[in-house]
């Protein structure tokens, strides 16, 4: 099947899964912003999602998208390195027109994955997983607001999350326009437009996540009620 066996097919899979993950991040970012205004409303959302069958199915689907995206990223990176062979060792300087993010997508991807694992430990493990196995991890599984407070009262987590989000910004700003190019939006005019749209969209998205981290770290979050 060309989606698996060909380089173009793998790039299409990377692009489609990447766009799907950006859409999820958009939902997640909007959900997080709620916590800046009302702890009660945020916990209501957490309870509505919880470990309901539809939330579990969505989580499994999301996990599948993430795994496919990550696996294909490593496959394409290995393929590109193999195709270049020893030429990459002969380079003396970086091409001027190649973005830093494009040159370091593998490193950025690894930082993003490590940050994702940390985030899953701090929230998914304490919330949905705890509810699935019928236990609590210090707070009720639906008390996401309390878990946010606990996490970002720790300055180490604050720093790690900001590093993760900055790496995610670099990764997404490159990945956004690259995905649009791969799925067939071509032409110099729209190529440049998608770069601008992608940079603005991703910047606002990441700022939404950083705003939550900084607000809770600074003690500016609202009370639960």
Describe this structure in words.
- By secondary structure, the chain is mainly alpha-helical.
- It has one domain: 3 helical TM bundles of succinate and fumarate reductases (Up-down Bundle), CATH 1.20.1300.
- It is built from 10 helices and no strands.
- Helix 2 packs across helix 4 and helix 7 packs across helix 9.
- The longest helix has 32 residues.
- The termini are far apart.
List the helices and strands and how they pair.
Blueprint: H1 2-5, H2 7-34, H3 39-49, H4 53-84, H5 87-90, H6 100-103, H7 105-133, H8 144-152, H9 155-182, H10 188-217
Keywords: Membrane, Transmembrane, Transmembrane helix
InterPro entries: Cytochrome_b-558 (IPR011138), SQR/QFR_C/D (IPR034804)
Transmembrane segments: 12-39, 51-75, 105-125, 158-179, 200-221
State the main characteristics.
225 residues; mainly alpha; 3 helical TM bundles of succinate and fumarate reductases; 10 helices; globular
Question: What's this entry about, in short?
Answer:
The chain crosses the membrane at residues 12-39, 51-75, 105-125, 158-179, 200-221. The chain is mainly α.
Mean of all residue-level pLDDT scores: 86
Oligomer: single chain
Sequence stretches where pLDDT stays below 50 over 5 or more residues: 88-97
Shape: globular
| Share of helix, binned | over 70%
Q: What series of H and E elements makes up the topology?
A: HHHHHHHHHH
Determine the N-to-C terminus distance. 54 Å
Determine and state the CATH class: Mainly Alpha
Structural class by sheet pairing and helices? mainly alpha
* Name of the CATH architecture: Up-down Bundle
In the CATH scheme, what's the topology name? 3 helical TM bundles of succinate and fumarate reductases
Total beta-strand segments: 0
Keywords: Membrane, Transmembrane, Transmembrane helix
Transmembrane segments: 12-39, 51-75, 105-125, 158-179, 200-221
Protein name: Succinate dehydrogenase/fumarate reductase cytochrome b subunit
Organism: Xylanibacter brevis
